[in-house]
């Protein structure tokens, strides 16, 4: 299950959040190769965040997914999510950081 968590200093007032969530969900689903109904998206708005010493629009995001996080997938996620945030929230791609984590499922433990 991919989970994308975005924190931004931008307010979502006046933003079509349904479209934003839909676009992010579809992008993550396609890039990671998981069905949309397994994708979780969280966006925290108006957080106290500076980047480069100023409070201009910026975002920090983390994505965690089971499997499917290879180098090419990471690159596609960074470019695509950065473009979505630039187009919808006016956050320049140079002011966006994405941390990508691949997780593995814990092995099933049998009773002793």
From TrEMBL:
One of its GO terms (cellular component) is extracellular space. SUPFAM superfamilies: Tautomerase/MIF. One of its GO terms (molecular function) is phenylpyruvate tautomerase activity. It holds the Pfam family MIF. InterPro entries: Macrophage_inhib_fac, Tautomerase/MIF_sf. Belongs to the MIF family. PANTHER family: D-DOPACHROME DECARBOXYLASE, LS1-LIKE PROTEIN. This is Uncharacterized protein.
